[in-house]
Specification:
The chain has 268 residues and is of the alpha/beta class. The protein is built from ten helices and nine strands. About 15% of the residues have low confidence.
């Protein structure tokens, strides 16, 4: 997600500010900050909150040569989830020990979400799991933001207008393109790696692997609907650093290089 800040810098240098933004999963927070504050302030605020984000959102996937693994104690949390599936008796939240902490973080960090459209219209892509359909919704309040970052099983669904939603990242790995836009150019910043597979340690992990592969297939289908796909996860430098400034710099260099190749092809 942090690499996307550098990629936005490269896009602004070449194309200026975007007409609209759509995000899903944890990147929804970045989208809201950028829509409201602009890039420089967003980088400063994300850097200031980087440690807090790492601590609160402990369900991020990290990729290694052995496949996708979960950071910190997530294997224990997945085993807890497996137990809950078998028992069907508990409503315990997983991954985030105290959801009140993340709610306070959102309220403190995104207090500008007060029901009005952001300076750059920002949307999130949600999945209505009762109707089994995608819904693109404007982010006007913290409720829409919370739904956009709701990754199952670590966070539960969020109710909006009587309907229950989770992030579409759970289903297809990325948001669908925004409709009703003036420009024909719609660029996706692709941060979700397609090279990993969860380890096959139990029937639970086999289930996770099958779900992951299905999500990646849907993601590839959605990518084809965008005009440009900037790949931020296949850089050879990927995995080598978790330093904030280095991540931003990697994102800029990767996006800038890909944009140069894209424009060379268009001119040819």
């Amino acid at each position: 997600m942090i690499r996307a800040l550098g990629a936005i810098r490269a896009l602004e240098n070449k194309l200026g500010a975007p007409e609209k933004i759509i995000a899903t999963g944890p990147a929804t927070m970045l989208g809201c900050l950028y829509s409201h504050y602009g890039l420089d302030q967003s980088i400063k605020r994300m850097k200031k909150n980087f440690t807090a984000l790492e601590q609160l959102f402990s369900f991020d996937f990290y990729e290694t040569d052995r496949g996708i693994i979960l950071r910190n104690e997530a294997y224990r949390k997945l085993n807890d989830f497996y137990t809950l599936i078998k028992s069907g008796t508990s409503g315990k939240h997983l991954g985030i020990e105290d959801l009140k902490k993340i709610e306070k973080f959102l309220e403190d960090t995104f207090d500008f979400l007060n029901g009005h459209m952001l300076k750059i219209p920002c949307y999130t892509s949600l999945f209505n799991y009762e109707k089994a359909e995608e819904k693109l919704i404007s982010i006007l309040t913290i409720k829409e933001l919370k739904a956009g970052i709701s990754i199952v099983p670590f966070m539960g669904p969020v109710e909006i207008d009587g309907q229950k939603y989770i992030s579409i990242q759970n289903i297809q790995g990325m948001a669908s393109p925004v409709k009703d836009r003036r420009s024909d150019l719609h660029i996706v910043l692709d941060t979700l790696s397609e090279k990993g597979t969860p380890p096959f340690m139990s029937s639970m992990y086999i289930l996770l692997a099958a779900d992951y592969m299905g999500t990646m297939e849907l993601k590839k289908q959605k990518e084809s609907e965008f005009s440009v796909d900037i790949n931020l996860w296949e850089n050879p430098e990927y995995r080598k650093s978790i330093d904030f400034d280095n991540l931003v710099d990697e994102g800029f260099k990767t996006a800038d290089q890909q944009l140069k190749m894209i424009f060379r092809k268009l001119r040819a």
